[in-house]
Specification:
The protein has one domain. 77% of the residues lie in helices and 0% in strands. It is mostly helical. It contains 4 helices and no strands.
Amino acid sequence: MATLACSENLEQVAKEPYFGGVKGLIKDALATQILTLICGFSKDVEGFETRYGKDYPSMNNEFKKTDENFKKFDDLMAWRFALDGKEYWQCRLKELTDDL
């Protein structure tokens, strides 16, 4: 495991009860960044659901039954990416919070 060097002043401030130490600060910062990612992916998913009026599995099944449409295909790939990203970061956030 890598170690993080920090100044004595920074370490003293981090030890204040409000912050929970350097480890607590790092975990809080990571959680905040992960929540930002989840929010972005969620907005993308909601945008596609609004545009097409259905969820991804329904739209994907419909796409498979119709003629090729490159715009819809591109949207499906971006939609899938957003769903996968959202799920991935939700799992990572759970791992982080389980470790607290």
